[in-house]
Structure prediction request, 184 residues.
Amino acid sequence: MLRDKQVILQELLVLRCKRGERQAFDELVRQWEGRLLYYVRRLVATEGDAWDVMQETWLRVCKGIRSLDSPDRLATWLYQVSRCAALTHWRGHYRAHARLEEGEKLEEIAAEETKPFEDAERVHRALGCVSLAHREVLTLFFLEDLSQEQMAEVLGIPLGTVKSRLSYAKRTLRSVLQQEEGCL
Prediction:
């Protein structure tokens, strides 16, 4: 059975990273930073937060690449690492908000966190209006082109949950887009 050249090159890159080759790690970052940043940007509130999460992601990848047993799982593993870094970021974010003064209203905080991004396309604005769990599955499925099985692994949830969450997320996104059309 012939294997795809890209798959072989990716596996070799992982093996070189595991050996501690600096150039290999730099190449890994170049190949994956755009895709991971795009994914992370859908999980956090601001561009600055996304870059902070990416920095944490690459630190975790650097420290943990040796634990990657199967180089063909690189994509899934990178998304898992970036997701964990984003969740850690959110936990810190919520801890900070828990210390807010009593006079600040929760509605204002929620509105601030779900504001659409001015320069984003219509779909990206709509993605900002759906819940984090739905945004995550939509991004992984449509924008990152992961299979439902890979999504289940990245998210750490059963395949059935991925399927139902994806179905509900599609309906929710469609509804948001239709509402936006009505406002135009």
